[in-house]
Structure formats: C-alpha cells, structure tokens
Amino acid sequence: RSEVDKADAAKDARAADHLLWLQSKQLLDALDVFDRDDKEQALLFEDQMGKAIAGMNATAAGEALLERWRAAGVSRENLFWRSLAQNQDAIEDEVNQLFNNQGALASLDPSASQNLIKRLADFYDKSHAMMDSLADASTAGPPSSYLVGGAMLINTLGNSLFQSKAASILDKPVNRVFASVLHARLGQFAQHFRLEMRDGRALSRGTTARIDRATTRSIDEALSAGKMGAMTEVRIGGVLVFLEIWNLYNKLTVLHKQSREYVEAVAALVALTAAGVELGACAVSLAERSGNAAVRQGARAFGSGLRLTAGVLAGSAAAVGVRYDIQDWHENYRLGRYSIAGFYLLRSVTQFGSASLSVAIGLGHAGPFFEYLLKKYGTRPFLGRLLMAGSHLSAAMAVRMAPMLRVFFGLNLAILALVLIEIFVLPNDLERFLDHCTFRKNRSNGIVDSEEKEIERMQLAIQREL
Fold first, then answer.
1. What are the CA-CA distances from residue 241 to residues 279, 335, 358, 389 (Å)?
2. Would you state the pLDDT for residue 29?
3. Dist. CA 294–CA 222, nearest whole Å
4. Which 8-state DSSP code applies to residue 85?
5. d(CA 186, CA 178)
6. Torsion, Cα of 241, 243, 249, 252 (10° steps)
7. CB distance 365 to 305 below 8 Å
8. Which candidate, 49, 178, 225, 431, has a CA 20 to 30 Å from the CA of 145?
9. Phi, then psi, of 446 in degrees rounded to 5
10. Is the dihedral of CA 268, 274, 280, 285 positive or negative?
C-alpha cells in the first residue's frame, strides 16, 4: 500500500507542470493563432487539444481542473468548453446559451431537448461534411490527425464524465450541458446508419427524434445501472489505464537512458494508448444496449474499430518486450547462464503468443467495422480487396474467440508470474554489474570495454536499486 501511495504522489507531482502549462498565457496566446471561423482550422484545433489534454483526467488535480472548467462556463481560458466547441465562435455561442439555461435542461422532454441543440448539431454537421469531402477527394481518406485528435479529445473529456463515482452524474445541471454537447457531436453517427438502412432516403422528423431519444436513454440507463451495468467495464478499464500510466512513469523516471530505455518508454506509451482506446470502446458499448437499431449498429461499428486499434497497439507494445527478451536470452546464453537464458527464452515465447493473440482478438471483434468500411469503400479496387480479406480473417478469428480468450488469459497470468520471478528471483542490476566488474568473482565473466563505461553502469545500477 505504501508503494502505491508513493506512486500516486509521484504521478500527482508530475501532473502539476502539465496543468500549469494548460493554464499558461503562452499556450493561450498560441491557441489564438487558430481561425475561429474556419471548418478546417476547427478540426486542427481539435487535434491539438486532444493531444494537449490527453490523460489529465487520470490524476485528482487534473480531474479537479476539468471540474472547475466544466462548471465555469465558456471563456478564452476554459479549454474544456473551448475544445468541445472546436474554438469556433458560432459553436461557443450555442454552448453558452445551453450553459445559461442549464437549470431548465433537466425538466425538458426529449423533443424539446432536441430542438434546443439543433443549431449546435448543424454546426458540427459542417465538420462532418468536410470530413466526407476529404474522404471522397482521396483514396487515402482524410488526414489521420483529423480523426485521432477528435477521438482523443472525446475520450479524455468523456471519461471525466463516465468515470465519475456517482452513477447519476447526468442529474447535475452542468453535466446535462456537457451531455447535450456530446450528444450533438456524436448523434449524427446513428442517423448516418439509418440513412444507409433506408437507401439514402431522407429521415423524417419523427425518425430523427426517436434516434436521439434512444441515444439519450441508452446512456442514462447505463449510467444508472450500478455495479452490474456497462459502467463496470469502464471502471475496470480505468484501472488498466492507471496501471499502464504507472508503468510508463517507471520507464520515464529511469535516468541515464540508453536506447533500450527510450524504446521501452515508447512501448509503454503505446500500451497506455491501447488501454485508453480499449476504455473508449467500453464507453461506446454504453450505446450498444440501445433498443434503436441504428444506434446499436453505429455503436457496434465504432466500438469494433476501437477494439481492433487497441489490439494492434497492444500487440505492437508486447512485440518490443519479445525483442528485448530474445536479446537478454542471447546474452545470458553466451555467458553460460543457461537457467536465466531459459527464463528469458520462455518469456519471449509467452510474450510473442500474447502479442499475436492481442491482434487476433482485435481482429475477431472487428467484423462490424470491416462491414461498414466495405459498404463505404468496397468498390475501390485495391482497398476493397484488402477490406474483404480483413472481413474474412475477422470472421475466422471470431469463431475461435472463446478458446483464444482462454489461452490469452492463461498467457497473461504466465507473463505476470514471470515478471514477478524476474523482480524477486533473478539477479538485479547491481548484482549483474558486480558479476561483470573489474573485481568480479568469476574471472571468466565478460567485462565492459572501458573504465568510463564501467563507472557509468555502476552509477546506473546503484540508482535503479536505491
């Protein structure tokens, strides 16, 4: 428990600089460069802010700042509402009206709520239309930053709502405003699927209202379902994100980093990103229980795409561990430490299996996402064949999902056991240094190339162990 408290204290201490920067005059001056009446600049601003605030809700201080911003209303210094409004004057005006009328939002029926946010949804539709035009103008689609930044932004700001301890958090008037803005931002996705289901025929006002009511109801029900509801997945995912942040912190606090330490830090960051994307998929699953077919279909496609991304990222991070375990196996085998070499060989094989299964499980979940992409891009020669192959592979993985999950669970338990063995049984950095220093007991052990290198390794070993 004391070690966890130390980790929390270190995490909060490092967060202070980040939060100070987010409130600095220099950052606000830099953000003023973005045009406040331009659709492309709105997407670029959203991209930058998604990266700037990523992870701030993982600390108590960061969440407290988000809470203050959320309650303070629209202003130049309030990056919460400014980010959601894409830095656009017209959207900020609409959000400001919602904020000023927050006391009446809770008593409005779904139809009145929809009318209140209609203009806001229309403004966001212009961003969506620009994304579609960029996708139609190029086989490569819109720039990835236009997609990733918005997803990161919604993930960070959305988690500050969904991860609250109060399951009925939407009852707070200011969070009613926030939910309305998110609803306007994301609600068109379900309407897009309804249009496809109707072969492009325009939606009636009644159909649009039913979709909006279904989206709102599914989120409300999930948030009020208690421990056994969809919020359980989100909260468990939050624990995973915390563990990955802790792992990243440990990698970044290593002084005198060599190339290996930098690569491991990047791998830890990729693993953290994978956990965050998986958490986003859990949040999207809140809408998969909706009684509305379009809402369910949209949530399944979006959520399966997120799970595919999380699987690929997690597999990539694990592959880094495989590479360094093989390197450690070769070094120990060359020095005649066959038992330690066998340990690293076993862990490399286990991690390779885990990495492969991470990608395979992501593919198994990606069926609805591939189906959506095939409908949109299936007529393109190369991309269509690639998506068809991905769809077939996803179907093959899906039928093997149950045994893969059992094996994946077992491999992760094995990896955990091997990590504990490495920590508590195998020689630590200081012991390894003593085995290869000038005064080593076994003179057949190898030695470093120079005195300077030996002193550097000694300092690094002592620093890691003290």
1. 8, 38, 17, 32
2. 92
3. 18
4. T
5. 12
6. -90
7. no
8. 178
9. -70, 165
10. negative
Q: Counting Cβ atoms within 10 Å, is residue 446 exposed (0-12), middle (13-18) or buried (19+)? A: exposed
Q: Show the tokens assigned to 255.
A: 């002084």
Residues 253, 291: contact at Cβ < 8 Å? Answer: no
Residue closest to 272 by CA, chosen among 262, 260, 264, 284: 264
Amino acid residing at 407: V
Q: For 378, which DSSP code?
A: T
d(CA 56, CA 157): 9
Taking phi over 0 as left and psi of -120 to 50 as alpha, with beta for the rest, 207 belongs to alpha
Instruction: Record the tokens describing residue 441, joined without a space.
Output: 């007991």
Sites in the chain below the pLDDT cut of 50? 139-142, 161-175, 222-241
Nearest one of 109, 125, 75 to 95, comparing CA atoms: 75
Q: How many angstroms separate the most distant Cα atoms in the chain? A: 84
Q: Check if the beta carbon of residue 447 is closer than 8 Å to that of residue 436.
A: yes
How many residues are listed for the chain in this entry?
466
**Under 8 Å CB-to-CB from 395, ≥6 apart: which residues?**
367
Nearest to 79 by CA among 135, 24, 3: 24
Distance, in Å, from the CA atom of 451 to the CA atom of 457, rounded to the nearest integer, reads 10
Rounded to whole angstroms, how far apart are CA atoms 306 and 288?
14
* Sign of the torsion angle spanned by Cα atoms 117, 118, 123, 125: positive
Tokens describing residue 385: 């064949």
- The reported pLDDT for the residue numbered 14 is 79
What is the predicted pLDDT for the residue at 357?
Answer: 82
Residue 110 burial (CB count, 10 A): 15
| 265 torsion bin: left (phi>0), alpha (psi -120 to 50), beta (else) | alpha
Phi-psi region for residue 86, left (φ > 0), alpha (ψ -120 to 50) or beta? left
Rounded to whole angstroms, the Cα distance separating 74 from 81 reads 6
C-alpha 385/C-alpha 383 separation (Å) is: 6
